[in-house]
Design brief:
Length: about 400
């Protein structure tokens, strides 16, 4: 976090940092230039060119301006540095080393901040102009090592800057694509979960509404038959009927909000349960999946929510076994006094890759949670196992 704050501060004060760098860099250069001889003298070393003081002043001022403002106007300052350097070459026949170093730094900044075509066009023109000026006004020949060396170093600086810019652009592009992919994946996950919850709510409505409708009909018939019996029975049954009507109206209004306009005519017949398990296994057998089905305990009518969740969990588990397994699966259904337990296992096929979205597992967990149960799923010793426990303590519906 501290590193991020430091980087943000440097971005806000980039010009100030560049100005400090320009002063320090220029000062150290002139200190080394004038005081760097072995005898501690006050003039340039014997291998250095003795430029006039006015040239040093112009060069120092140019270097300070170019280095301080190189992030704001890199192209203009690169051209300005080149023009001053051309004038000094024409006047003295030599390149000033401070302007050469400044050109490298500003040229690198310019190539990092523009496109490849413009970088090579502008920088190439500057390099060619300085090479021609050195050949025309300089003391050395066109093919002298210092002329060719300067051109080579200048081209290398621009090439390194262009490569750095390309790499940075590639990294930014990859990070942006990864960010967008992550956002898209999260949005898709949220959408799928919302759709699964809507489907669960619709199926719960279908099942519960079916049984409430039966209760309503039976209560109406009982009230009609028992009107000649004790007076206390009739009002009680009428109360049941009114309560059932109220529940149906409330449930219809809630589901009306959940459902879309294109689902108003959806069928409302009860969803399948474990009583239709044989048909489900036959359909998988026809598709090529051999299921070894074992049942423990006495099968009985389950609460509607539990029955629906159990059927869908078995269906999704066998579907995954058919996709990623070896063609065989084991299904164990255990009825206990308080719950029904489902275990589905299959060997994972050789080289099989899970190409699904994982929303089926999310749907199984949602259904189990809606029924008050739990589901665990995952690979165990080369097999993929699903274990579900659903409570079944509610009274059976007559």
């Amino acid at each position: 976090m501290a590193w991020g704050q430091a980087r943000a501060w440097t971005r806000r004060h980039a010009t100030l940092i560049d100005a400090v760098f320009a002063v320090v860099f220029t000062g150290l250069f002139f200190i080394g230039y004038f005081l760097g001889d072995d005898k501690g003298g006050h003039g340039p070393r014997p291998d250095q060119v003795d430029f006039p003081i006015a040239v040093h002043v112009i060069v120092g001022a140019t270097a300070l301006v170019c280095l301080s403002l190189r992030r704001r106007w890199p192209e203009r300052l690169l051209i300005a540095d080149t023009v001053v350097l051309l004038g000094i070459i024409a006047a003295t026949g030599n390149r000033h080393p401070l302007l050469l170093l400044t050109w490298f730094i500003v040229g690198y900044t310019f190539a990092r901040r523009t496109n490849r075509r413009r970088a090579w066009l502008v920088a190439g023109a500057c390099i060619a102009a300085m090479y021609v000026a050195a050949g025309l006004f300089g003391d050395s020949a066109w093919t002298a090592p210092d002329n060719l060396g300067f051109a080579a170093w200048s081209i290398a600086v621009i090439a390194v800057a262009d490569a750095t810019r390309s790499r940075r652009a590639y990294i930014d592009s990859v990070e942006e694509r990864a960010r967008r992919a992550e956002e898209t994946r999260e949005e898709e996950a949220r959408r799928r979960v919302a759709e699964e919850r809507l489907r669960i709510a619709r199926e719960l409505h279908d099942v519960v509404a079916h049984h409430i409708a039966v209760i309503n009909v039976q209560a109406g018939a009982a009230a009609h038959v028992l009107r000649t019996r004790p007076e206390a029975v009739g009002p009680a049954l009428a109360h049941i009927r009114r309560a059932a009507d109220t529940v149906m109206q409330e449930l219809g209004s809630v589901v009306g909000v959940l459902r879309g306009e294109d689902e108003l005519d959806a069928p409302t017949e009860p969803t399948r349960g474990l009583a239709r398990l044989a048909e489900l296994l036959d359909s998988f057998a026809a598709a090529g999946l051999q299921v070894e089905h074992r049942q423990s305990g006495t099968a009985r009518d389950l609460p509607a929510v539990v029955d629906l969740a159990a059927y869908r969990i078995v269906q999704e588990s066998l579907t995954n076994a058919h996709k990623y397994g070896t063609g065989r699966a084991a299904l164990d259904v255990v009825y206990t006094p308080n719950a029904v337990t489902i275990d589905v296992g299959n060997a994972i096929g050789h080289g099989a890759e899970a190409t699904g979205s994982g929303y089926g597992l999310v749907g199984m967990r949602e259904r189990a949670a809606a029924a008050g149960g739990t589901v665990t799923a995952g690979p165990v010793d080369g097999r993929f196992a699903v274990h579900a426990e659903l409570p079944a303590t509610a009274k059976e519906t007559p």
